[in-house]
Amino acid sequence: MDASSALDLCRATLLTAVVIAAPMLLVGMAAGLAVGLIQALTQIQDQTVSFVPKLLAMAAVLVACLPWLMTRILDFTRIIFENTSVP
After folding, report:
1. 3-state DSSP call for residue 1?
2. What confidence score (pLDDT) does residue 87 get?
3. What CA–CA distances, in Å, run from 30 to 19, 42, 52?
4. Given this model, what pLDDT does residue 19 score?
5. Which pTM was predicted?
6. Which pLDDT score, from 0 to 100, does residue 82 have?
7. Which of 23, 21, 19, 20 is nearest to 60 (CA)?
8. How far is CA 10 from the centre of its chain?
9. Which of 4, 22, 40, 50 is most buried, judging by how many CB atoms fall within 10 Å of its CB?
10. How far apart are CA 47 and CA 53, in angstroms?
11. How does the protein associate with the membrane (predicted)?
12. Residues lower than pLDDT 50 in the chain
């Protein structure tokens, strides 16, 4: 493996990791923003209140996106094992 192939592999790995993590992170961020807004409007300043809605929202997105995520991971793994060109 030359330097160019290693660099392409690292780039593809990082891009795949970002794409896989993005749905859960974005939903967690949106849920945190919504709970923070509700806390500000109702003047409830408890740090533990935002944990459960974020956890539930992220779990729901994980369940909803799991087939797509597994397909993406399996395709990437197949490309790595076949040692073909990295997308």
Report:
1. coil
2. 55
3. 17, 18, 14
4. 94
5. 0.77
6. 85
7. 23
8. 18
9. 50
10. 12
11. Multi-pass membrane protein
12. none
Q: Is 85 helix (H, G, I), strand (E, B) or coil?
A: coil
Tokens linked to 62: 């994980």
Residue labelled with tokens 């408890």: 46
Can you read off the two tokens belonging to residue 23?
């749905």
In the 8-state DSSP scheme, what is residue 75? H
Query: Which pair of tokens denotes residue 48?
Result: 């533990």
DSSP state of 86: -
Cβ proximity of 12 and 83 under 8 Å? no
Whole-number Å distance between alpha carbons of 11 and 5: 10
Amino acid at 63: V
- For tokens 């509700």, the residue is 38
34 contact partners, CB below 8 Å, separation of at least 6 = 53
Taking residue 70's Cβ as centre, other Cβ atoms within 10 Å add up to: 11
Q: What is the pLDDT of residue 85?
A: 56
Q: Which residues contact 62 (CB under 8 A, 6 or more apart)?
A: 24, 69
